[in-house]
Amino acid sequence: MAGMIRKSLNEPEETRPFEEGKGRLDLVHLEAGGVGRAVFEPGWQWSKHVKPIVHTDSCEAAHAGYVLSGRIKVVMNDGQEEEFGAGDYMQVPPGHDAWIVGDEQCVVLDWQGYADYAKRQD
């Protein structure tokens, strides 16, 4: 049995900034994958601030996470849509766009989809 592990998102092992200063992803690496905290600034939209980094038509990450603050709207490629806010668990499959709703910063913890999220593909 493995021992305890302590890592802090306040001291991330990696930080990936979004385009135009619209936020960042703080990431810690674990054997089972990454755990991340994304900070999305008002006006952030995946198709404007992450798509130019990853070069895919839509977000191809699957997300399992928890919204700590703010609101985010997710629209699937098939048209299904949902809005998530503080206190909500969110599970979102690959193939979507998303954007911040309102003027409040949105902070999301994710333990599934952030290992390769916003990873620069040049």
From TrEMBL:
<dbReference type="Pfam" id="PF07883">
    <property type="entry name" value="Cupin_2"/>
</dbReference>
<dbReference type="InterPro" id="IPR011051">
    <property type="entry name" value="RmlC_Cupin_sf"/>
</dbReference>
<feature type="region of interest" description="Disordered">
    <location>
        <begin position="1"/>
        <end position="22"/>
    </location>
</feature>
<dbReference type="InterPro" id="IPR014710">
    <property type="entry name" value="RmlC-like_jellyroll"/>
</dbReference>
<dbReference type="InterPro" id="IPR013096">
    <property type="entry name" value="Cupin_2"/>
</dbReference>
<feature type="domain" description="Cupin type-2">
    <location>
        <begin position="55"/>
        <end position="110"/>
    </location>
</feature>
<protein>
    <submittedName>
        <fullName>Cupin domain-containing protein</fullName>
    </submittedName>
</protein>
<feature type="compositionally biased region" description="Basic and acidic residues">
    <location>
        <begin position="8"/>
        <end position="22"/>
    </location>
</feature>
